[in-house]
Specification:
The protein has about 210 residues and is α/β, with parallel strands linked by helices. The protein is built from 8 helices and 8 strands. The longest helix is centred in the N-terminal third of the chain and has 17 residues, at about 45-60.
C-alpha cells in the first residue's frame, strides 16, 4: 500500500475557482505540508472529473502525496489514484475494496460507533469522523460529538481523523481524543495563502498532540 499518513488531510473544493486558480491552491497546500489530498467533485461529469483528477494527480505525485478520489471508484481507477473515499450513501467499503484491490487506500466517512466498526470490518484503512463543527461546504452534514469521536478511536485499530469546520483556532476541542489527524476543506481552500494555512493548521495539530 502507498504510505498512509493522515495527519493533515486536505479535501478540495473547486467551487468558484478557475481551473488554473484551483490547481494553484492545491499545489500551495502540498507545499504547506498536507499529507493526503482528496479530490471531491460533486457536480462534474465523469469525463470532467477524470480530466481534473489527472491534473491534480500530476501535482500530488511531485510531492509524493497520495491522491484520494471522493466517491468515485471508476475515476480513481481511471487515473490510478492511490485510493478512494466513500461516504455512507456511497458504495460499501467491501465493494470498493474488491474493485480497487488490496494495495490501494480505502477511506470511509462514519458518524457512529456501529458505522465505524462496520467500515473497519469491511476493510477500510482510515475513517473520517464528523462533522465536528458545522461546515461551509455544500455537503450535507450531521454533527458528531467529541465523545462519539473518542469512542470510535477506542474501538477501531485503524487511523481516525476528525472532519467538519476545523481550523487552527478551534481544534483545541480535539485534545486527548486520540485521533491520528484532521481533515480540512475551507480553512485551507479558501485561505488567502493556502500554503501558510496548511502549515499553520498542521503545526496547531502537532502542538495539540504534544500538550
Amino acid at each position: 500500500m502507498k504510505k498512509l499518513d493522515t495527519t493533515m488531510y486536505f479535501i478540495t473544493d473547486s467551487t468558484d475557482y478557475s481551473e488554473k486558480e484551483f490547481l494553484y491552491r492545491v499545489e500551495e497546500a502540498c507545499k504547506g505540508g498536507v499529507t493526503l489530498v482528496q479530490l471531491r467533485e460533486k457536480e462534474r461529469t465523469t469525463r470532467e472529473y477524470i480530466a481534473l483528477a489527472e491534473k491534480v494527480h500530476d501535482i500530488t505525485k511531485r510531492y509524493d502525496i497520495p491522491l484520494i478520489i471522493d466517491d468515485r471508484v471508476d475515476v480513481a481507477l481511471a487515473v490510478n489514484a492511490e485510493g478512494v473515499h466513500v461516504g455512507q450513501s456511497d458504495m460499501p467499503v467491501v465493494t470498493a475494496r474488491k474493485l480497487m484491490g488490496e494495495d490501494k487506500i480505502i477511506g470511509a466517512t462514519t458518524k457512529t460507533v456501529p458505522d465505524a466498526l462496520e467500515a473497519y470490518e469491511q476493510g477500510a484503512d482510515y475513517l473520517g469522523v464528523g462533522a465536528i463543527y458545522p461546515t461551509t461546504t455544500k455537503v450535507k452534514t450531521v454533527l458528531t460529538s467529541v465523545d462519539t469521536l473518542k469512542d470510535i478511536v477506542n474501538v477501531v485499530p485503524i487511523r481516525v481523523n476528525a472532519i467538519g469546520g476545523l481550523n487552527k483556532d478551534n481544534i483545541h476541542i480535539l485534545k486527548n481524543t486520540g485521533i491520528d489527524g484532521i481533515c480540512a476543506v475551507s480553512s485551507i481552500m479558501k485561505a488567502e495563502n493556502p500554503c501558510v494555512a496548511a502549515r499553520e493548521l498542521r503545526e496547531a495539530f502537532n502542538e495539540l498532540q504534544q500538550d
